Structures are given as C-alpha cells and as structure tokens.
Amino acid sequence: MIEPSSERAVDRFVELAERGVGQISRAQLDRGWQRIQDPMPHASANRRPVPERRMPERGIKVRAWLAGFATASAAAALVLVVYRTLPARPEPALRYAIEGVVESQGNVIASPSGGSSRLRFSDESLIDLGPSTNVTVDALDARGAQIGLADGALDVHVRPRANASWRFVAGPFRVNVKGTEFHLAFSADRGRLTLQMKSGLVEVLAPPNRTIAVGKNESLELFAEPAQSEAPQVKAPVAPPVAEDVQAEATVPSGGRILPSNPRTAAEPARRRMPVPANEPAPVVWSRLLAQGDFASVLTDAERRGIGATMAQASAADLSALADAARYTKRNDLARQVLLAMRSRFAGADHARDASFFLGRLAEAATDRFKSAESVESALGWYETYLREAPRGLYASEALGREMALLAPGTPERARKVAGRYLARFPQGPQAELARSLLESE
Hints:
This protein is α+β, with helices and mostly antiparallel strands and 442 residues long. It is built from 15 helices and 14 strands.
C-alpha cells in the first residue's frame, strides 16, 4: 500500500527525472518496472512466474511511479556526479567602509589627533581607530582580514562566525582572532604592546617563538625592541641625588599623594657602587633585554652602574625600560622612583606623560594589597593627570576604564560621570559594558 505522501514524493521524483532525461515513454516505464522486479537478470530463469492478472487502475499508477523512481534515481545520480565535478563558487571577499575623517597615503589609514574614525566591514565587524592611529588593511578574504597596526590604539569587534579568521600585526607581534572584542594598542617607538580582552579568546604570537592565549577580561603587556633603539647614555656616576630630591621635584597629581618609600634604603645601593671603568664593553641595550623578557638583566645592569646615577643621567627610553623591568619583577618601589625621576627630568615629553599612567597602575596595585582609600585617590589622581596631559594618548581608554572600575564600588555617582565620558569617547571599548550598566543604574 503506497501512502498518499509517498505518492506525491514519487510523482515529484519522476517529474525531476523527466526534466533531466526527457519524457519517459510507456516502454521505458515497463523496462524500469521489469528491472525493479528482476534486480538480478542472471537469476531470472529460476524465478517462479507470476500469475497473469489484471491490475487495478491504482496498481498501474503505482507501477508507473516505481518505474519512474528507478529512472529518476539514475538521472539524480548523474546530476550529483556532474555537480561534484564542478568547481565550488568562491565566497566573496569582505569589503569595508571608512567612517569619519581620515588621512591616507598609499594603503595607510591615519586617524586625526583630535578625533577618531571607524572601519566597518561587510560581515558587521567593526574597528574603531583611536586618535593618531595608523593602520593598514593588508589582506581581505571571505573569512576575515589582516590589519597592520603601525602605531596607536584600536577597539575591535570581530563578529563571531564559524570560519572567521582575522589577523592583527603590530611590530613583531601577531594576534589571531576568531570572533571577539578587545582593545589593542601599540607604541612603535617604545616597542610596547598592550591588549585588553572584553570577550572571546585570542592567540598572541610573540618573539622568540612564544604563543600566549588571552581570554575574556584578561590583559597582556609585551615588549619588543624598538625599530631604532639607542644605547643607554650612562656615563661614570656623579654624586647621586637622594630620593627625597627626586620626589620633591616630581609633579604630584591633583588630589593624589605619592606613596611613602624609604629614601635612605633607596640611595644606599648607589653610594656603594664604584664608577664604571672607561674601557668597559659596549653598554647593554635594555630595550633588547625587555623584548626577550629578561627583566632581571636590566635590573642587574642598572644596579652595577648605580641606580642613582642611572636615574640622573639615563635617557628617557632607558628609564622607561628600567621602570618596566622593575614593575614586572614586582619591585614597585624602584619602579615608582624611576617614573618620578622621568617626570622630573623630561617634563612634557611623551615618556613623562606615560609615566603618570604607570604611576597610577602602581598606586592601584597598592590598593589591591592594602585596600587603602589613600591609595585609591592616588591612583585616580595619576590617571586624571595622564588624561589631562595626554587626552588623546595611547592609554586614554585604559585610564578612563580603570578610573571607572575603581570608583564603581564606593562612589557610584562619580563613577557614572566617568562612564559618560568613557562611552562618549570609546563606545566599543573593553569597559563599555560596565559604563552602560552604571548609567542604567541611575
């Protein structure tokens, strides 16, 4: 008994077969029926004959269906073979549009210093360019793009797709992405890469042959040797300044305080150091040691020369490298002294402005240990100093985000004000979700 639904399916199959092979004659239907009845021709001699009897109209129709089914099966198989031999139609490559004012030279896209711009891709992925950011779109295909970050900061939203494959290249670093949101900043002249994840997972490839997975709400800071790194300009030590003098000359942020340190202890190592011989080997390039992750060697070389002499005479780039090495080895008191010396000696320079941001980071680290209201205000003061001195700086997004996170638990009203500033400037930033939740809680 053939069900009506099966009848409709077979009818449709016969119709498709006739489109591929032409009208099916009654003789073809009979042969098809015979083949179904007799799948093994060599055994037909032994087959018991079927009694001749008249088939009802419905039976005739069923026989036609089955014969058509056999013919259509052969046609469908032929169509499938032909289809599989045809080359697959390639997916179109992604396209993108630039929103906002930018300057371009060749394939370099540069956002202005006083504003920001956006790259909008055809798969709904977005890349927001921070002020004074230079990027290149180096490759586009159906799965994603390769973006070069020469200098500056990006807020990235890659739309999750099963086959997505995006690549971000900044100096010697490469960030592989499937679908995620993150903040990426690269300072070419300092060789510093910072990554803050908002969601998803990325894989960072860094020299020498390191692969680092970074997940949701995690952050990463890496160093590379700058393109034009200079050797430390450390001469034979002169009478080193004591730490009190360094702190007295340092710029103190509005509403902030410098955390106490022991100047006597800090100055003693310098007094015990002997002058560096004039015929010593060429000085160690600290930026190269940072790129290799050898922070201990930076500190050892600085101590050999004298910490006080280094703070008094080293270049801004070397002081920055020494402060980074001290931070990463948890010698926060030394890092703080070096950053304050940098602000005193190089006031107004990029390194000095960045030092205020890292002083805020150090004060925030002290807050994590001691939960001190004084440390919180110190961190907030340094972040505000950085934003005042470098409102379009490389760490502006992070400074505002950290301010907001520090204020949210105890002073939500202040936090909401910062949240409004954050969303106005960084609507796709890693802390945008926190900012929106604070504003919605009013």
